[in-house]
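[User] At your convenience, examine this fold.
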Amino acid sequence: MELAVLAKAVPLSEQLRYDTARRSMRRDGVALVLNPFDQRALRVALELRRPGERVTVIALGPAAARPLLREARALGADRALHLCDDAFAGSDVLATAFTLSAAVRSLGDALVLAGARSTDSDTGLVAPAVAGFLGVPVVTGARTIRRGADGTTLSLDRDTARGHASAVVRAPAVVSVGEKIAKPLHVEEAAFARIGDAGVETLAPGSIGLSAGEVGSFASPTTVTSIAEVAPRRRGQRFDVGTVPARAAAALAVLGEMLAVAPPPPSPLPWPAAYDPSLEIALLASDEGGRVAPAAAGLTTHLRRSLPGYSVTAVVVGPEPSAAESRSLASAGARSGHLIPVAAGEFDAGDAAHAVAAFVGRHPQLAAVVTPASPFGREVAGQLAAARRLGTVADAIGVASLAEGGLEWTKPSFGGRTIAGIRCRSTPTIATMADGLAAPATEPRDDGLRWDRAPAPSTVRAVAGGEEVLEEAPGPALESAEVVVAVGMGIGGPEGIDRLRPVLESWGAAVVGTRRVVDAGWLPGHRQLGLTGRWLAPRLAVLLGVRGSINHMIGWQRAGTVLAVNRDPEAEVFRAVDVGIVAAIDEALTELTAPLARLLRRSGPADLG
């Protein structure tokens, strides 16, 4: 059996600079590196390789990526395929996945390994879409992989929305790997020099059985229409003068004023004057277990508020929702419900994608299909995009209707430093969206949704899943916490989080982390906040040692008040919070813990709507 590794050359994000005149990121002089998650995938492939088998690395990218393929060869790959031709330029997620799948198909049956995401685009959709084009199962976010004696059975431990779970799948298959599975390999200069260009093959579209019209911008239904710098939304008051006690006292005075002001109540949901099938959004409202997903109600409300003339249909793959779940979705703004009946535990993401694809086929006028940006949601979205050849937008944070018709989506780009506007010429558009963009509306409805039942689909369940293991963290549940503390790498490690326990108890606070903290294993994956994690709306957010990348800060969009503590006066976080204190974390907490606890009790809870 062949082992194929999908690799990508990514820019060093810290070297990227925004050009205000050109309204784009300057890439000249920016070094390219092998995507760190793909490095891990390569290491796993090399460890899984058995005598007589080959590991082939496949990369789609410019000529400047060739040294990275030489690096992969020096690390132990038997072969490297460089898809490099002018025709490949402008490939979006769909075109990239289609091209990579053609290269994989040329190898015959293969176990395909990839990074769970790339550090530049961060979509998490390429691996599922490749699986969709190949017609094989996909497992994302693998923590461990064990290969059975027969060579084709794989036993895995994988990330889930709330923890991790076991899974079993047979190759050929696509598996993406996360941070925890392995450390990246590092090439030795002697090995790099010895390998030269041997084993690196440059391929054009015809080499993998494709024409120029099937790849690149010609085959990319999505278009980037704008890129803009992220505009600050909060006060950005920074206290960096005087002693730490003086800074903390000044910050507490401002916090007291802010916490005393209740936000305005939410406005009523806009309801379309009449139903128009071309102005309908289908929302995948269920999770991998067939339950109504926690994100479904909030996403329903967000879509309704963002698109006043549109309606939302909740699509459930699984058993019929309970009366309470139906009422919740109806109150959140869903116009109707569509049930694709499958017994719980009898389907996987591939089955769900095929079932939703059939639904799309029966409703060709749909404007969009939205899935939660969870592991399951991304697996469904990628495979659905491949099945229907539809453009995808990953991790969208907003959507608006255009005067000339159609939709424009917004999402962070270039490592979160800018916001991109994206349009799609295919109908419907597939989009993944994070939980927490809006609080679920609770407008009274006479009854719940009436479920339009589809014929029961056939299922294969190529991925057998085990029971989910929930991973806990200090403090109360995130959904009910009025105060949430976020920790960045500046907290110093797991021991720094342990030292926070008395503080969390004093404030009644839950704890979350940045992506780097979660990737380092200091907190479980479902405690990651930001674009690729959770979105929360606490009364108060306290950020400790957080750098302030937009990918993290966007998760605080709905927070009432945001306080940051960082010892670096130039930290980016101070431009995106209400109140900032320049100080070491331990020093600041000495001054903040008791007074802030009293302030929170005195000001009382606030309904953030």
Remarks:
- The mean pLDDT is 90.
- The CA atoms of residues 229 and 270 lie 30 Å apart.
